[in-house]
Design a protein that fits this description.
The chain is α+β, with helices and mostly antiparallel strands. It has 4 domains: 90 residues, Uridine Diphospho-n-acetylenolpyruvylglucosamine Reductase, domain 2 (2-Layer Sandwich), CATH 3.30.43.10; 119 residues, Uridine Diphospho-n-acetylenolpyruvylglucosamine Reductase, domain 3 (2-Layer Sandwich), CATH 3.30.465; 119 residues, Alpha-Beta Plaits (2-Layer Sandwich); 93 residues, Alpha-Beta Plaits, CATH 3.30.70. Helix content is 36%, strand content 20%. The chain is built from 17 helices and 19 strands. Strands 12, 13, 14, 15, 16, 17, 18 and 19 form an 8-stranded antiparallel beta sheet that branches. Strands 5-6-10-8-9 form a 5-stranded antiparallel beta sheet. Strand 8 and strand 9 form a beta hairpin. Helix 9 crosses helix 12 and helix 13 runs antiparallel to helix 15. The longest helix has 15 residues. It starts with a helix and ends in a 16-residue tail after the last helix. It binds flavin-adenine dinucleotide, D-malate and zinc ion. Flavin-adenine dinucleotide binds next to strand 3, helix 5, strand 10 and helix 12. The site of D-malate has 7 residues, from helix 12 and strand 19.
C-alpha cells in the first residue's frame, strides 16, 4: 500500500509538494526544542486548499493520520508525528500568499502558511498594525498561531490570536472544505464553529485561510527598561500605568536577573541597559495612534512615561530605569526579552511551565512557586519571566549547571507536579498560551474536570470519529 499511497499523494501535490527522502524529512520530524523525534510516511506540502482537501480525503480513505504543521516553532510537540512512521506531516508552508488587504474595513485575508512577520510587515505597508507579536514571529505561521491561539507580548491590549480573527476556511477530517471565510464582526447564527478550530492544535481540522483583523498603526511609542524591587512592585507599576498612559499600555513583561544573565551569556552583542545589577526587571511599552509632532507643544508618550516613572521611583516601585531614546534602543531592550527562550535552549536542558494566574496574584504565586520548585530540586535554577500584564508567567526551570538531560528529567515530574498543583490551587491555568500538544496530555487529563474532558472528547469524536486528525495531541478521545 505504501508505494501506491505515495504515488497517489504525488498525483495530488506533484513532486514539489512531496518529501520522502529521510534527510529532507528530518526538520519536519522534530520540534524546536528537540524534545521529540517522530517518523512519517511522507511530508506533504500542498499548494492550495483544494490540494489539502484531496490529501486529507485520500488519508481518510486509507486510514492514515495527518499531522498539520506550520513553522514548527510550537513548544509542546503538537506538530511532531509519533514514532510509528504511519502518519503524514501536512505542512502548510507553500500556502504563503496574502490574498487581500482591506485597509478601509481593517481586515487582511491570508493563506495559513504565511509567516507572521510577513503579515506584520504587510499591515505596516498599509499604515496598519497586526498586533500579534512573539519571538518566533520570523518563522511561525498564522495557521500555527491560530491553531494554538497564540499569545505573545501585546495580549494585554489587543487580545490573544482568537481575538484577532474574523473568519476561517478549514479542511475537515473528512477532506471537506468549510468556507467560514467571513469578514463579519457580528454573526450569531448558531454554534461558533470558528471558535472550535482556534486553539484546537490541528486536532479538529486544518486551517487553510483566515480573515484577520488589523488596527491603526501606532504613531507614538515609548519603551522603558525598568529595574523593580519585586514582582509586587511590577504589578503595582502596571496597575498605575493604565491610567497614567491614558489606557495605552501595550506590553508589560517581567524578567528575573537569572534570565538576563543567560541572554548576556549566550547572545553576542547583548548589553545590560542599567549600570547596577538588579533582581527584577520590567519592559514597559506604551503606544498610541496619536502622532507625535516634533517641535509642537505637545506631551508625547515618552514625556508621560518619564513623569510616571519619576513618581514611581519616589514611591519605591522603581529602582532605576532607561527610557529608549530611539527605535534601535527600544529594539535592544526587546532583544533582551525576546532572547530568553533561545538562551535557555543554548544553556542546556530546561523545563517550561507556561502558566497563568490572575494578575494581582502574581506576587504571592511567584514567592510560593519559587519555593516549591526549590523544594522539589534544591539545585535547580528557576528562570521566571513573561507576560505579567496577562498574568502569564513562563515559570521555567533550568537544569543545574553540568547536568545532562536524563539526569535532570528524572526530577521533571516532581518539579512540574509541585508547580502545577500550586497553579491549580491559585485557580490558574497549566497552559496559558503554548497549548497541550503531546507534552501535557496527562496533565490536561489530570487537572481539567470530568465534565470539561467529557465535552472535549465528545467534540473530538463528533468531528473526527476515526481519530485521524493529529492523534495523540491534546487528549485521548477514547479515554
Ligand atoms: P507549529 O509549531 O507548526 O504547530 C503548532 C500546532 O498547531 C501543532 O499542533 C500543529 O499541528 C498545529 N497547526 C499548525 N498549523 C496548522 C494549521 N494550518 N491548521 C491546523 N493546525 C495547525 N507562543 C505564544 O503563544 N507566545 C509566545 O510568546 C511565544 N514565544 C515563542 C518564542 C520562541 C522563541 C518560540 C520558538 C516559540 C514561541 N511560542 C510562543 C510558541 C510558538 O511560536 C507558537 O505556538 C506559534 O503560534 C506556533 O506557530 P507555528 O506555525 O510554528 O506552528
Ligand atoms: C516567550 O514568551 O518568550 C515564550 O513563550 C516563552 C518560553 O519559551 O517559555
Ligand atoms: Zn510567551
Amino acid at each position: 500500500m505504501t508505494t501506491d499511497f505515495i504515488d497517489r499523494l504525488r498525483g495530488i501535490v506533484g513532486d514539489r509538494g512531496l518529501v520522502t527522502d529521510e534527510a529532507a524529512k528530518h526538520p519536519y520530524l522534530t520540534d524546536w526544542r528537540e524534545n521529540y523525534l517522530g517518523a512519517a510516511l511522507a511530508v506533504v506540502r500542498p499548494a492550495s486548499t483544494e490540494e489539502v482537501a484531496a490529501v486529507v480525503k485520500l488519508c481518510a480513505a486509507e486510514g492514515v493520520a495527518v499531522v498539520p504543521q506550520g513553522g514548527n516553532t510550537g513548544m509542546v510537540g503538537g506538530g511532531t508525528p509519533d514514532r510509528d512512521g504511519r502518519e503524514i506531516v501536512l505542512s502548510l508552508n507553500r500556502m504563503n500568499r496574502i490574498l487581500e488587504v482591506d485597509p478601509i474595513g481593517y481586515t487582511m485575508t491570508v493563506e495559513a502558511g504565511v509567516v507572521l512577520k510577513t503579515i506584520q510587515d504587510t499591515a505596516a505597508e498599509h499604515d496598519r498594525l497586526f498586533p500579534l507579536s512573539l519571538a518566533a514571529e520570523g518563522s511561525c505561521t498564522i495557521g500555527g498561531n491560530l491553531a494554538t491561539n497564540a499569545g505573545g507580548v501585546q495580549v494585554l491590549h489587543y487580545g490573544n490570536a482568537r481575538q484577532l480573527v474574523l473568519g476561517l476556511e478549514v479542511v475537515t477530517p473528512q477532506g471537506e472544505i468549510w468556507d467560514g471565510l467571513r469578514a463579519l464582526k457580528k454573526d450569531n447564527t448558531g454554534y461558533d464553529l470558528r471558535d472550535l478550530y482556534l486553539g484546537a492544535e490541528g486536532t479538529l481540522g486544518i486551517i487553510t485561510r483566515a480573515v484577520l483583523k488589523i488596527w491603526p498603526k501606532p504613531k507614538d511609542v515609548a519603551t522603558a527598561w525598568i529595574a523593580v524591587p519585586s514582582p509586587e512592585a511590577a504589578v503595582a507599576l502596571l496597575s498605575g500605568a493604565h491610567a497614567a498612559s491614558e489606557d495605552n499600555v501595550t506590553s508589560c513583561e517581567l524578567m528575573a536577573r537569572q534570565g538576563i544573565d543567560l541572554v548576556l551569556k549566550h547572545v553576542p552583542g547583548a548589553a545590560d541597559p542599567l549600570a547596577e545589577r538588579h533582581d527584577w526587571y520590567v519592559l514597559l511599552e506604551w503606544s498610541s495612534t496619536r502622532p507625535r509632532r516634533p517641535g509642537a507643544n505637545q506631551t508625547g508618550l515618552a514625556e508621560k512615561m518619564e513623569a510616571y516613572l519619576g513618581e514611581a521611583l519616589e514611591k519605591g516601585l522603581v529602582l532605576d530605569a532607561a527610557l529608549a531614546q530611539n527605535e534601535a534602543q527600544a529594539r535592544a531592550f526587546w532583544a533582551l526579552r525576546e532572547n530568553h527562550s533561545e538562551s535557555q535552549k543554548r544553556e542546556g536542558p530546561s523545563i517550561k511551565h507556561d502558566i497563568s494566574v490572575s494578575v494581582s496574584r502574581i506576587p504571592t504565586f511567584m514567592e510560593e512557586g519559587l519555593a516549591a520548585m526549590k523544594k522539589a530540586l534544591p539545585e535547580c535554577r528557576p528562570v521566571p519571566f513573561g507576560h505579567v500584564g496577562d498574568g502569564n508567567l513562563h515559570f521555567n526551570c533550568q537544569a543545574p549547571e553540568g547536568w545532562d538531560k536524563p539526569r535532570f528529567m528524572a526530577h521533571a515530574e516532581a518539579i512540574s507536579g509541585a508547580v502545577y498543583d500550586l497553579v491549580v490551587a491559585y485557580g490558574g491555568s497549566i497552559s496559558a498560551e503554548h497549548g497541550i500538544g503531546q507534552m501535557k496530555v496527562e496533565e490536561l487529563a489530570h487537572y481539567r474536570s470530568r465534565i470539561e474532558l467529557d465535552t472535549m472528547r465528545a467534540i473530538k469524536r463528533a468531528l473526527d470519529p476515526d481519530n485521524l486528525m493529529n492523534p495523540g495531541k491534546i487528549l485521548d478521545p477514547s479515554a
